[in-house]
Specification:
Number of helices: 16
Strand order of the largest sheet: 9-8-7-3-2-1-11-10
Structural class: alpha/beta
Largest sheet: 8 strands, parallel
Helix content: 25-40%
Number of strands: 18
Length: 550
């Protein structure tokens, strides 16, 4: 039996076009059973916090049974809950409670690969080469004498080759870790299975899915060599007709998925995690395919006026071709938190997985993060908030090596620390770890910095000028100001190093990305700013302001 539709103003078929969606990395959000790991009980206990924050929906990272070789993105059963996180019955209650509070619920789905512990893959290993069980995955004979060399030269996203050999001599493909064998999406059984999985969760009341590696499921059956370096193989940028990224065959899959989503009385939605070549994103968001996609160009952009304007322009104009809304995002569970990035000399993301080891000015990074957050929340379209950014959390770059769990650490030969630094559990209350994260006070699965006592939700709540209060105020304006409800957007002339645009017909947004104060527009009165406006008529450096037009 499905759960009811959310009972708020977002309860309409187009809610997703402008939704503010909060990303819950469930392992690190809140621990409700006292074992040091986040879970459904902890999330349920904090739903009111999310309502008060002012978001429209939550997106939950994978909560399925998994050996956790890649933080849950190695799924062993797509129709159940990892016992550490709870039960299916608890999931049903969460969905119902969230809907009762006006929150939509979006799950992660991981269609490119399974866990090597998934029943299908275990059956494939036990079966003979060429068997139906192996045809669900991508098994091939090797090259060289006795097939001792991998079938091609592809590199895996976490480092090393994309092929692992089985005891009978064949090799299987894994674009990520060896524990994540790629599925064969040319196989009808695979397609039917995932359509069934979608229906299973939609029938439970889930409102949509974020699609992991949405650009990776279709492969060139010839599996040709790439002849590229490791990192260029990961990105796939600049290569047309790439053999495993962003292939045209993927769109037939999404057309069938969209038909399933649209078959429900309250249509379900999809958001793509797709790293694609310039100009290709609209192909994923045609009216009969996916609804929205993450804006990685915005996330990775340097904190510079010309670069941000170029990304905003390209996003809005490209997606307008297919009638899709823009989305905006500053951080997620895979990238360095933007408070840390913005405090560096180079504020963009230029390498796969992460940039690390650079000096960071957290005061500067926080000021810029505040300006970026207000900018993001007043742009037209949807917005994604990664848990903890509303508290001003920074990247934890000094985790003990013994604590690191990201597969990148091992696969890179201990040269890339990986993504654990942005996944450290949330601080809620108190002056010492675990800062209210665990109901029992148990040590969390990743250690928290001692100085996070100044970043807890409790500390933020007590400070009227905190990051949390900024997010709450901006999200309230986003909901209530009539000029921010539509998708109208128009650039206005402004000095070098600044941005100025109009929303609706009565609201301006000005952003100063320079290191000097700049004049405020004369045609508007300040309504809300990301930081103090200390000098009359001037906008301080690294500050965003909304102005009511006179």
């Amino acid at each position: 039996m499905s759960n009811p539709t959310p009972t708020n103003d977002a309860a309409n078929d187009s809610w997703w076009r402008s939704a503010a969606i909060y990303q819950v990395y469930i392992r690190s959000f809140a621990d409700g059973d006292g074992d040091g790991t986040g879970d459904i009980a902890g999330l349920r206990s904090r739903l009111q916090y999310l309502v008060h924050l002012g978001v429209d929906a939550i997106w939950i990272n994978p909560w399925y049974p998994s050996p956790l070789a890649d933080g849950g993105y190695d799924v062993s059963d797509f129709r159940d809950i990892h016992p550490t996180y709870g039960t299916l019955d608890e999931a049903r209650k969460l969905i119902s409670e969230a809907h009762g509070l006006g929150l939509r619920v979006i799950l992660d789905i991981v269609p490119n690969h399974t866990s090597d512990q998934h029943a299908w893959f275990q059956e494939a290993l036990a079966a003979a080469p060429g068997s139906p069980e192996r045809k669900r995955f991508i098994f091939r004979d090797g090259k060289g004498e006795n097939g001792s060399l991998p079938p091609n030269d592809w590199y895996a996203a976490f480092g090393g080759p994309t092929w692992t050999r089985t005891p009978d001599g064949q090799w299987y493909l894994h674009l990520f870790a060896p524990e994540q064998p790629d599925l064969n999406w040319d196989n009808g059984e695979v397609r039917a299975e995932f359509e069934s999985i979608l229906r299973f969760w939609f029938d439970l009341g889930v409102d949509g899915f974020r699609i992991d590696v949405a650009h990776g499921m279709a492969k060139d059956p010839a599996l040709p060599d790439l002849g590229l370096t490791e990192f260029s193989a990961i990105a796939g940028e600049g290569q047309e007709n790439h053999p495993h990224w962003d292939r045209d065959g993927i769109h037939d899959i999404y057309r069938s998925w969209r038909a399933i989503a649209d078959s429900y009385p309250d249509p379900r939605v999809f958001v793509a995690e797709a790293h694609v070549r310039p100009g290709r994103m609209p192909d994923y968001l045609r009216p009969d395919e996916l609804h929205t996609a993450f804006n990685f160009d915005f996330l990775k952009s340097a904190f510079e006026a010309d670069k941000l304007r170029e990304v905003i322009d390209r996003t809005i104009s490209d997606l307008a071709k297919v009638g899709a809304p823009a989305t905006w995002v500053l951080s997620n569970h895979d990238e360095t938190r933007h408070v840390t990035r913005y405090g560096r000399a180079h504020t963009g993301i230029t390498t796969p997985m992460r940039d690390q080891g650079h000096p960071t000015d957290l005061t500067l990074g926080t000021r810029r993060a505040r300006a970026a957050a207000l900018l993001m929340l007043v742009l037209p379209g949807g917005a994604y908030i990664y848990q903890g950014e509303e508290l001003g959390l920074y990247e934890v770059e000094d985790l003990p090596e013994s604590a690191l769990q990201d597969p990148t650490w091992e696969r890179s030969g201990h040269t890339v620390r990986g993504r654990d630094g942005c996944r450290v559990p949330m601080p809620w209350t108190g002056d010492t770890p675990p800062f209210g994260f665990s109901i029992s006070g148990a040590a969390p699965w990743l250690p928290q910095p001692e100085d996070w006592k100044a970043y807890t939700a409790e500390a933020n709540q007590a400070d009227p000028a905190s990051m949390l209060q900024l997010y709450r105020s901006a999200l309230r304006l986003r909901r209530t100001n009539p000029h921010l409800r539509g998708e109208e957007f128009r650039w206005l002339d402004s000095p070098a190093g600044t941005l100025l645009f109009e929303r609706g017909d009565g609201l301006m947004c000005a952003v100063n990305l320079t290191d000097q104060p700049t004049p405020l527009p004369e045609a508007g009165s300040p309504l809300f700013a990301s930081g103090p406006l200390d000098q009359a008529g001037l906008l301080p450096p690294d500050t965003t302001v909304l102005l009511q037009m006179d």
